[in-house]
Design brief:
The protein is an all-alpha fold. The protein has one domain (2-237, 340-362). The chain has 17 helices and no strands. Helix 9 (189-198) packs antiparallel against helix 10 (203-228) and helix 12 crosses helix 13. The radius of gyration is 20 Å and the shape is globular. The two termini are 33 Å apart. The relative contact order is 0.14.
C-alpha cells in the first residue's frame, strides 16, 4: 500500500493544485454567473467558489437531509436526486462545508492509490502510473475536488473491484452497497459480480454478494421514505430535472458545431461526445482484454451515461459520469505508453481543459 500511496502522491498534488488554482482564479477574475444563490453557510467566505451547482445540494443535504429546510433551500423532492452517503458521512464527522471538501479530496487520493493496486494486477508499473495521471488530469477531474459524490464513488467502485480480484466476495458486495448509496450508478456493480459468476466464482456467495449493491439502493429508498414519505423519491426526482421542451435528438453533434462557430473549444457540453466516443472505444478494449467483470461494468456505465444525457436533454454532465469509469483509463494508458509525443500532447490538452473548467466553475458557471 505504501508503494500505491507514493505512486498517487504527485499526480494528486499536481492535479489538485491546478483545480484549486483555477477555481480561485475564476472566482477572482471572471464575471460571476450564479445559477443558485450562494449557499448561506459559505456566502462571502473562502469556500464559496467551491459551492456551485450540485455542491449546493450536497451541502443542503448535509445540513437538512431530505426534510424541510429554509426557504432558500431547494425542496426535498429536488434534493432526492442526490444520494445520502456522501453528505451524511460529512455530517457524521462534523457537519461542516469544509468537511465536505476534505472528504472529497481524501477519497480521491484513496481512489488513486487503490486504482494503482488494481492496475498493477493487469498492467506494468509504467502503465499503471500513467493511468493515475490520466485520471487526475482528466478534463472532468475537477469534480473529484469539489463537494460532489464523484470521488467517493470512484474510491468505492475501485475498492469493490480490488476486493473482487482478491475473491473477497461479501466484503466487495458491502463496498458495492456503499457505492450505490453514493450514486445510483453503484447498483451496476452487481453486474461485475455477474461477470465473476460466469467466470466460475462460487455461485452461492457470489449471488448473495451481487444482491448487496441492490440492497444499497433499497437503503436509499428507506431513507427517502423515512424523511420525505416517498420510497422512490430518488427516481421521481429525476423527472423534475427534465426540461419541458425536448431537444433535437442529434443535439450532442449540434453543440460541437456551435462551439466551432463560436470559436469556443472549451464549451463544456461540446466535450461530451468526443469523450463518450473515446470511452466507448476504451470499454471495448477492456471487454476484450480484461476479465468479464471489468468489461460488463465499463459498458454498462457508458450506456447509463448516454441514457441519462438524452433523458435530461443535456450532455453537460456526461463528462463527469464518464470520469469515474476507471477501467477505461487502463486502455488509454496502454495506448499512450509507447507513444511519448501523443502522451505528452494528451496530458497537456487535458490539463488545459481541467484548468479552464475549474476557472469556469469558480465563476459560478455550470460545467456539468
Amino acid at each position: 500500500m505504501r508503494a500505491a500511496a507514493l505512486a498517487s502522491l504527485v499526480p494528486f498534488l499536481v492535479s489538485r493544485a491546478l483545480v484549486w488554482m483555477g477555481t480561485e482564479l475564476g472566482a477572482r477574475l471572471l464575471t460571476q454567473v450564479h445559477i443558485l444563490p450562494a449557499f448561506p453557510a459559505v456566502a462571502g467566505g473562502a469556500l464559496a467558489p467551491f459551492f456551485h451547482a450540485d455542491a449546493w445540494y450536497y451541502a443542503a443535504l448535509m445540513r437538512y437531509g431530505y426534510g424541510p429546510g429554509p426557504g432558500s433551500i431547494p425542496a426535498p423532492a429536488y434534493r432526492a436526486e442526490f444520494f445520502p452517503l456522501y453528505p451524511y458521512l460529512a455530517k457524521a464527522v462534523g457537519g461542516t462545508e469544509l468537511g465536505l471538501l476534505v472528504i472529497a479530496n481524501v477519497a480521491f487520493f484513496a481512489a488513486l492509490a487503490v486504482t494503482y493496486l488494481v492496475a498493477r494486477k493487469w498492467l506494468d508499473h509504467d502503465r499503471a502510473q500513467l493511468a493515475l495521471w490520466l485520471i487526475a488530469l482528466g478534463p472532468a477531474a475537477m469534480f473529484f475536488s469539489y463537494p460532489y459524490g464523484e470521488s467517493l464513488f470512484l474510491a468505492l467502485s475501485v475498492l469493490c473491484f480490488f476486493l473482487l480480484d482478491g475473491q473477497r466476495w461479501l466484503l466487495a458486495g458491502l463496498v458495492g452497497a456503499a457505492a450505490a448509496m453514493t450514486r445510483g450508478a453503484g447498483v451496476l456493480l452487481s453486474l461485475a459480480f455477474a461477470g465473476e459468476f460466469l467466470r466460475g466464482a462460487p455461485r452461492r456467495v457470489t449471488a448473495l454478494a451481487a444482491l448487496l449493491p441492490i440492497g444499497g439502493l433499497i437503503a436509499v429508498g428507506w431513507v427517502d421514505q423515512v424523511q420525505m414519505g416517498d420510497p422512490l423519491g430518488f427516481l421521481h426526482a429525476g423527472a423534475l430535472w427534465v426540461p419541458p421542451q425536448p431537444r433535437n435528438p442529434l443535439f450532442p453533434i449540434g453543440v460541437i458545431g456551435k462551439a466551432v462557430l463560436a470559436a469556443d473549444p472549451f464549451r463544456p457540453e461540446a466535450l461530451a461526445l468526443p469523450m463518450l466516443l473515446g470511452f466507448a472505444a476504451a470499454a471495448i478494449w477492456v471487454a476484450r482484454r480484461m476479465p468479464l467483470s471489468y468489461g460488463i461494468y465499463a459498458i454498462a456505465m457508458i450506456l447509463l451515461a448516454v441514457r441519462t444525457g438524452w433523458y435530461v436533454h443535456s450532455f453537460y454532465s456526461v463528462a463527469r459520469y464518464l470520469a469515474v469509469i476507471f477501467p477505461c483509463y487502463f486502455a488509454f494508458a496502454t495506448l499512450l505508453q509507447s507513444r511519448r509525443t501523443l502522451q505528452l500532447a494528451w496530458l497537456l490538452i487535458s490539463a488545459s481543459i481541467l484548468l479552464t473548467y475549474s476557472a469556469l466553475y469558480g465563476s459560478g458557471r455550470f460545467i456539468g
